[in-house]
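Case study 2.
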Amino acid sequence: MKVGIIGAGVMGRGIAQVSASAGHQVVLFEINDEVLQIAKTNIAATLSKALELGKINAESVAATHENLQYTSRIADVQVDLIIEAIVEKFEVKMQVLSQLAEINGSSTIYASNTSSIPLTQIAANFAYPAQVVGIHYFNPAHIMKLVEVISAEQTSPEVLQIAKNYVTSVNKTCIVAKDAPGFIVNRVARHFYVEGLKIAEENAASYEVIDDLVRASGFKMGPFELMDLIGVETNLSVTQSMYELFNYDPKFRPNRIQQKIVQAGYFGRKTGKGFYTYEK
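Prediction:
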């Protein structure tokens, strides 16, 4: 299958690597040349590290690179399956998907990696609603085993099955979720972040202490470490979206600490500062 990944940020480049490593021909599209080059460098480094650790062999590394095409021209994205992993804004997603529909037509499958925007809303505003489906990876995509597949009200059974087959083909665990706010994982995980922020806001514990306690309880990362990894602004956007979709239920209310950090431009590891400071 030829797969087009839209957006070469942290999530997009991870999905591209996973797909190419599984043998799919991948076109990774990114309008920003600098971000595209960073993605290419990062994928090469990640594969080299996996080779060094003995997780893959040299032939697999070479095959993955061979399967990857990097481009800043949207016209190059002529594929069987599109997975968009761009900014979590409905209008932006629809604009890009509309451009891709003109290039690819009605036979291509149009998947969104959205964390919280209703797939039914996307499909209702799209030229080929039956071809829309959700394929939701988790960060980092090349490590996390779970992928949610979300069916919009309009998604055809055939498209849903192809999406499930694709997830299986990239050696991930596929779960099918209803098109409900936050789907499954983000709805459950929202309070992991929100409660951590409330504890910090009340000065009951520092970011470091909260993260230490969570890790001591068996989690690999605490909420503040994880938000910095995902992107503080991305995490906040999902919380805001779910707050609105749940009719402003207070338990989903965005936290002022996180809002201020985002307003300051501190998005986490990608900017060198979030809840913690990192060497760039």
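The radius of gyration is 19 Å.
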